[in-house]
């Protein structure tokens, strides 16, 4: 696994490695066709990427997407637009003006030409200027050290995060550290009612490491292959990883109001849209119908049972005000009746970016993946799937 590397990025599986190679091949093709020194060409390329003309599968493509975004924004800030083009002809260099002969022969003035009081004032000003220069050098050095320190810490967290999830993937299915010491899970719904459950063997070691583990989410040929956590609130795992360390990537987590035992109609999993591609950084690739068809199946195992889901709806939404009367996907956990269920399905179908051909009936189990979307304020990108096994 250590040998799977493309464009400086390490990939965990052979499938991810092959996907990264496809991304790199597409990037090379784009670079050969687009002059990156032409503002109009770069701005047009970024617009095409936003429109879905080019789709990437891995963090390698996501890095290129960030590069084009930053370059396009730079050109836009300089006043360029899609039709802008810089002439390839080099401007003639202007000959430096000749210095005035009188200026060249100007009399040089020395400190001794001034009286004693003026000499003291001049020396005092020179010392002040020298002190300011030294302070400026020290300040710049401190700022530079701080910047290097920040990038060093950031790189450390990124590297640690990659290694941690590689290790977790290896622990999944490894029961060597569990053995006969593992005990089942007891859930107390009330003082009188409790349920005894068995954790699937492949998740027992991970569950022993962190009892907040509720499942594992994986989509083949993508970077999404992560544990899913759940706590009594939806805040903690926004900035903590599986090992309960601070991590700006956060973790994938199941909404606090979801119950995988007394199964809700709809389970909602949240994750950050990271520029690095981590977590749900590439979830919006589903905006492409072609990508959606190639990645139609989603594997979500709870710690108690396995599950496979088929993508049904893909749409953009946002977080609404409480008083707005509108369909709010993030409040849909259960349908009290068949009519309510069908109404929710119609709302999502109307929002969906394309028709997958997959539909659901009252009684089907759903899975919703949600991440941030920059297309509008408080925007969200959503993928909804139906359980098929």
Description of the structure:
The protein is α+β, with helices and mostly antiparallel strands and 389 residues long. 36% of the residues lie in helices and 17% in strands. The protein contains 8 helices and 12 strands. The strands form 3 sheets. It has an 8-stranded mixed β-barrel. Helix 1 packs parallel to helix 3 and helix 2 crosses helix 3. It is globular. The two termini are 30 Å apart. The model has no long low-confidence stretch (mean pLDDT 84).
Explain the layout of strands and helices.
Layout (H helix, E strand, L loop, with lengths): L4 E2 L2 E2 L3 H20 L5 H12 L8 H19 L23 H4 L11 H56 L13 E4 L5 E4 L3 H9 L3 E6 L6 E5 L22 E3 L11 E5 L18 H6 L2 E6 L5 E11 L19 H14 L14 E8 L5 E9 L2
Parallel strand pairs: 6-7, 8-11
Antiparallel strand pairs: 1-2, 3-4, 5-6, 5-9, 7-8, 9-10, 10-12, 11-12
């Amino acid at each position: 696994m250590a040998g799977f590397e493309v464009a400086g990025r390490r990939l965990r599986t052979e499938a991810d490695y092959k996907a990264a190679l496809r991304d790199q091949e597409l990037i090379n093709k784009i670079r050969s066709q687009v002059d990156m020194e032409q503002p109009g060409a770069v701005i047009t390329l970024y617009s095409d990427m936003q429109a879905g003309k080019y789709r990437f599968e891995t963090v390698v493509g996501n890095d290129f997407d960030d590069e084009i975004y930053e370059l396009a924004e730079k050109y836009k800030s300089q006043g360029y637009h899609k039709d802008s083009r810089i002439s390839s002809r080099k401007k003639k260099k202007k000959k430096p003006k000749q210095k005035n002969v009188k200026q060249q022969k100007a009399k040089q003035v020395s400190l001794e030409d001034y009286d004693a009081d003026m000499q003291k004032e001049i020396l005092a000003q020179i010392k002040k200027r020298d002190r300011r220069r030294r302070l400026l050098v020290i300040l710049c050095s401190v700022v530079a050290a701080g910047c290097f320190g920040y990038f060093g810490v950031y790189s450390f967290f990124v590297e640690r995060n990659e290694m941690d999830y590689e290790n977790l993937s290896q622990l999944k299915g490894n029961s060597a550290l569990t053995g006969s010491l593992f005990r089942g899970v007891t859930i107390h719904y009330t003082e009188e009612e409790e349920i005894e459950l068995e954790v699937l063997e492949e998740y027992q070691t991970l569950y022993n490491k962190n009892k907040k583990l509720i499942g594992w989410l994986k989509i083949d040929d993508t970077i999404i292959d992560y544990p899913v956590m759940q706590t009594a609130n939806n805040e903690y795992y926004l900035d903590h990883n599986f090992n309960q360390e601070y991590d700006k990537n956060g973790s994938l987590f199941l909404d606090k109001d979801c119950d995988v035992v007394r199964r809700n109609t709809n389970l909602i999993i949240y994750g950050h849209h990271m520029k690095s591609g981590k977590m749900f950084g590439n979830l919006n690739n589903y905006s492409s119908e072609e990508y959606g068809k190639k990645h139609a199946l989603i594997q979500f195992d709870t710690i108690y049972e396995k599950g496979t889901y088929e993508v049904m709806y893909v749409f953009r939404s946002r977080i609404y005000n409480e008083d707005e009367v509108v369909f709010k996907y993030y409040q849909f956990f259960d349908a009290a009746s068949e009519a309510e269920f069908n109404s929710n399905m119609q709302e999502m179908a109307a929002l969906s970016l394309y028709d997958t051909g997959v539909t659901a009936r009252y009684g089907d189990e759903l899975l919703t993946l949600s991440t941030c979307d920059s297309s509008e304020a408080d925007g969200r990108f959503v993928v909804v799937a139906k359980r098929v096994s």
